[in-house]
Predict the 3D structure of the following.
Amino acid sequence: MTHRFPIRVFYEDTDMAGIVYHANYLKFIERARSDWVKEQGLDQNAMREEDGIVFVVRRIESDYLGMAKYDDMLEVRTVVRSMTGVRLIMGQEVMRGEECIFRAEVTAVCVTLDGAPVRLPTGLRKQVH
């Protein structure tokens, strides 16, 4: 199932050339992943405060395929590629209409507040599988 998250490009998202600054695509896809987690019924604040665990990005592989400009309407599309007990791999695309302008594969894991790896929340594993 594809999660869809709309983004409007604001002036602050652009660089001196008037196009979206490359690092902001990472912010866009992070917002979409956070929204996806919330839609799965997980409260990340409660995970941190009650369970002492947080999601972290372990790896991102990305391709810049086009440019977005001020006031463009974009959509981040997120799909789960695979999930194990400890690793979640998601494919994410930033679309302008039907044109894919950015693509990433993101590996996320959970760690304790001290940085020790732990299993993904059971609720998430059950929800996605």
Residues 3-128 form a domain with the Thiol Ester Dehydrase; Chain A fold (CATH 3.10.129.10). The chain has a mean pLDDT of 94.
